[in-house]
Design goal:
This protein is α+β, with helices and mostly antiparallel strands. The protein has helices at about 90-100, 100-105, 115-125, 130-145, 160-165, 170-185, and strands at about 1-10, 15-20, 30-40, 45-50, 55-60, 65-75, 145-150, 165-170, 190-195, 205-210, 210-220, 220-225, 230, 235-245, 250-255, 260-270. β11 and β12 form a beta hairpin.
């Protein structure tokens, strides 16, 4: 269950929003059920965006002091096979010129453009090794170099800013990794979703989870890797969306008319059912 929303510093007269909070089906993940509850009540228009992420667009046109969304989903997730079907550098180059989806995951964005120091690091780690091994080494090195510090950055922080401070959260680490991978010609995309806590929870026991971000790279097939936790994506990761960077798949984005400030509210609860 993912709860998020805004508590406004006063009365808000109207708000217009998009939510990306419901998991995607496909690959090793199947959505068995998913519901989105919005308070105050609103009419929802659902669609799939360009990146194939499910979007709930809605407006609230009555005065309100708080906007809350609760997404409750039942998802079956299988463990992924990591590192199979690996291309060489020339194979990746040929594939990237023929597939639009790969071309778009090679170009730097405002959030992911890598500083020169990161580019040099990526080149050194790629020298003389296959792309798959290079990608893993790059993500491990960057994840180790950046200290995980909640609140140290903003959603607008760029890879260059994060690298300069060597502090950030999962989306920041993912952005730096994306810039590094793309700089050496490895198509890479941003993945957002949820992660269950480390350790084994009891079946049916609700535990605190996290909104999370990681990377996927293409070396013949897409391989997911969590640089924040230094491990491949497994059955404890639930995907909501994939795109170029955070800006393409924010959980909640909108505009409102009302007071100047608001507080973001976020809570994720994970329950293992079997």
């Amino acid at each position: 269950m993912h709860e998020t929303g805004f508590r406004y510093d006063g009365e808000t007269r109207a708000s217009y929003n998009e939510a990306r909070m419901q998991p995607a089906s496909g690959g090793h993940q199947w959505v068995l059920s998913s519901e989105l509850e919005i308070t105050p009540g609103a009419h929802v228009f659902s669609f799939w965006d360009y990146w194939r992420t499910q979007v709930a667009a809605f407006e609230v046109l009555i005065p309100h002091h708080e906007l809350m969304l609760t997404a409750t989903s039942l998802v079956e997730v299988q463990d992924r096979q990591f590192g199979s079907q690996q291309f060489g550098w020339e194979d990746i180059g040929r594939a990237a010129t023929r597939q639009t989806g790969l071309v778009e995951t090679l170009a730097p964005t405002k959030l992911t453009a890598a500083p020169e120091e990161v580019v040099e690091l990526a080149r050194e780690l790629s020298d003389g090794v296959p792309p798959s091994a290079a990608a893993e080494a790059i993500c491990l090195a960057i994840g180790e170099a950046i200290e995980y510090v909640p609140g140290a950055t903003l959603v607008t922080s760029t890879a260059a800013e994060v690298w300069a401070e060597k502090r950030g959260v999962c989306q920041d680490i993912a952005h730096v990794c994306l810039g590094a991978l793309r700089s050496v010609g490895i198509p890479a995309r941003y993945a957002s979703g949820y992660i269950a806590p480390k350790g084994k929870a009891e079946l049916g026991e609700p535990v605190k989870g996290e909104s999370h971000a990681w990377v996927e790279w293409f070396t013949g097939q897409w391989n997911g890797f969590d640089p924040t936790n230094a491990r491949p994506i497994g059955d404890m990761h639930v995907v909501v969306g994939r795109a170029r960077d955070y800006d393409d798949v924010p959980p909640l984005r909108g505009v409102y008319t009302g007071p100047d400030s608001s507080e973001l509210l976020v809570s994720v609860t994970v329950t293992l059912e079997m």
